[in-house]
Amino acid sequence: MAKVLLLLIAGIIALLGFRINSFLKPPPLPPPLENTWWGPGKPNSGQAVVKPFTINISDQVLKDLQWRLENHRPFTPPLEGIQQQYGMNTNLLKKIVDFWKNEYDWRKREKFLNQFPQFTINIQGLDLHYIHVKPKKSEGLKVLPLLLIHGWPGSVREFYDILPILTTPQKGRDFVFEVIAPHIPGYGFSKAAVRPGLGAAQISLVFKNMMQAIGFQRFYAQGGDFGSIILQHMSVLYPEVVLGFHSNMCVVNTPQAYLKYFLNSFLPSLPWWYVKPDHYDRVYPMGEHFMLRLRETGYLHLQATKPDTLGVGINDSPVGLAAYILEKFTTGTNKAWMEEEDGGLTKVFTYTDLLDNIMLYWVTNSATTSFRLYSETFSKAHMDLGITRRPVTVPTACIRFSNDFYAADGALRETYPNLVHLTDEEGGHFAAMQLPRVLADDVFESVEIFQNIHKKNS
């Protein structure tokens, strides 16, 4: 009986070990994604045509907006002693709405937004809108294609200050960028899918096809927020097209990382420490950081489960849209601003800049379709692909801003084994708008490293 019991225990341990190993091991690559037709009508195999695009919103849309701003229901006053802890403070919201009604001039902003060349192209049934900026001076320099992708609740408006830097020759660099910055499908002027299933993996294929249709077989890529997630998927699924991946929100989503974070909280001083000592307070105490993450990601749970219900209210009320988005520009830029009456917004942004971004959601009626990106990416079918659990093998650079989502050095090295550049800077989630020079400099530095790697390997 003792021998039978020992054999049984050994068998259970072996089975448990096998299960744990299978759980921790990166899943295999999924089968190649299909070139699904996401738009209306029947698929066609015609050549993708690039068409010039100019933003030109009708007077009717603007009159309707003005009426809604002037006739919103009275705001519920905030509780005594509360700034932004319950979300958007309505005293602050009133100031922003008054500015929107009386000082913000869309026709002037429309000219501002049209300053860069814009185009549309139909890829897999989706009319995609993108900005395409070439350097004005490039004599004697290499011109490198750079795909730049925004996230939520952003838009291509985030890039208006960084585009001139990226496309201007920099001292000591022998290259400059030609930047392609598209709106994600369902955002801004890029059309949304008419059928379910268009998550980050499928969008990575759409953007790969878009870049190749424009004329770039291989290119560099930069993204933050959902732009980073889409490009992480692209780097795993199509590493042959990504010359280098730069992210200001490197995502780590592996069981090993969560397990090691947990163990490291008990044994921080061991030689295999997972978190740099000077970054310890960005991860621990785990309970405190978990509660912070839970509090600040309520939008994610709503958008990942009931995007259309949420979208009804947000699409119907410009004031609701502003409150929903601007709250993220407060806590996403600096969580300490939650305790400030003005939300800290004008420390780094202007109301005009922030309203430009909101207007790109309003005039295109794209709140609901932007939310669906979450429900499609965090669906069981998409998560079962396991792409974010696989290592990114293309040369990668990460810049971590102090008030953004954080991944420790050890976690980054597991998900990005070819991490060749890592920078830490003070700043927040919307880096391209807040710190365009800092972000651009890091992109230039990273791509120089990428190029040197390619030279060595060629």
UniProtKB/TrEMBL annotation:
It comes from the Eukaryota. Its main location: endoplasmic reticulum. InterPro entries: AB_hydrolase_fold, Epox_hydrolase-like, Epoxide_hydro_N, Epoxide_hydrolase. It catalyses: cis-stilbene oxide + H2O = (1R,2R)-hydrobenzoin; 1-(4-methoxyphenyl)-N-methyl-N-[(3-methyloxetan-3-yl)methyl]methanamine + H2O = 2-{[(4-methoxybenzyl)(methyl)amino]methyl}-2-methylpropane-1,3-diol. Residues 50-159 form the Epoxide hydrolase N-terminal domain. GO terms for cellular component: endoplasmic reticulum membrane. It is a single-pass membrane protein. GO terms for biological process: epoxide metabolic process. It holds the Pfam family EHN. The active site is at D225 (nucleophile), Y374 (proton donor), H429 (proton acceptor). It is found in: Endoplasmic reticulum membrane; Microsome membrane. One of its GO terms (molecular function) is cis-stilbene-oxide hydrolase activity. Its EC number is 3.3.2.9. Keywords: Aromatic hydrocarbons catabolism, Endoplasmic reticulum, Hydrolase, Membrane. PANTHER family: EPOXIDE HYDROLASE, EPOXIDE HYDROLASE 1-RELATED. Belongs to the peptidase S33 family. Catalyzes juvenile hormone hydrolysis. This is Epoxide hydrolase.
